[in-house]
Structures are given as structure tokens and as C-alpha cells.
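Hi Y.,

Following your request, here is the sequence exactly as I used it, all 165 residues.
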Amino acid sequence: MSVVETLVAICAPFAKVYGHSKVLSIGTTYLHIASMLGAGGLAISADKGALSMTRDAPGEVTRHVASQRALHRWVIAGLTLSAVSGVMMFASDVETFATSLLYWSKMSGVALLLGNGLLLQRAEKSLSADPSDVKALGKLRVSAGLSLALWFVVALLGVIVKTEA
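Below is the corresponding structure, written out as C-alpha cells. Let me know if you'd prefer a different format.
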């Protein structure tokens, strides 16, 4: 039995319930989209702030970094809800998603988003210690720009995956 066949067998009871329950299907899709919207919206707002910072205003850098660190808890919470709902949607149709290049492209985008988030946090930590650290500010800006692009790419791939499913 292949990995996909094994996953299909494991997820079959859930897939049956999911397939026959509009409430579960709609609720899961809503949770997935709403959590991505919330997390992405907060992250994009923070990214915009990071992109507008200048090294000539260390006080602005200090305020932004403190604000952004507080936002990360909400972004992580949103991504966690999105991951849970995403696993539920995957389990509802393992055969389709497990073999979909678009699905795995979206998952790669999410992985890049998470990895970039770690780099962004490192830059923030450096800037917390030294708000005039030009190198850290440059890294923060690059990560913010990448984050901004990745949120939109992941959203687009999510729409395409959902449409193709």
C-alpha cells in the first residue's frame, strides 16, 4: 500500500463526514480563509512599516520593532488556525491534494513564509539590541519585502488549489 493509499484509508471516515456536512465544509473553509486574512493582514501592515523605516530615525525603528514583535503572536495564532483547517481540507480529499503540484507549491510558499519569518525575527532581535544597526535594518527590509510578496503568492495559490480541487 502506497503512502497516499494509506492516508486515504486513515482519513476516509473524516472525508465521509466532511463530504456530507455543509456546515463542516463551509466552517473549515471560512476558518482557513479568515485566519489567513487576519494573519496576512497584520503581517502585511507590519511589512509596510518595516519597508518605510530609515536608519536616520532609531526611535522609529525601536517603536516599530516592539510593535512588530507583539503582532507576531497574532500572526502565529492565525497561521496555526490556518494550518489546522488546512490539514482538515487535505484530509477531506487526500487523493486530490497529495498528488497536486499546485498544492505542494502552496505548501512550499507557506514554508518559505515561515522561514522568512524566522529571518525577520532575527533582524528584529538585532535591531532591539542596536536600533542603528544598518545591516540588520537592511535584512529586515529585505525580509519584509519578501514577506509581502509571499503572502500574496500563497493567497493566489490557495485560490487556484481550491478551484482545481
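The mean pLDDT is 92.

Thanks again,
Q.
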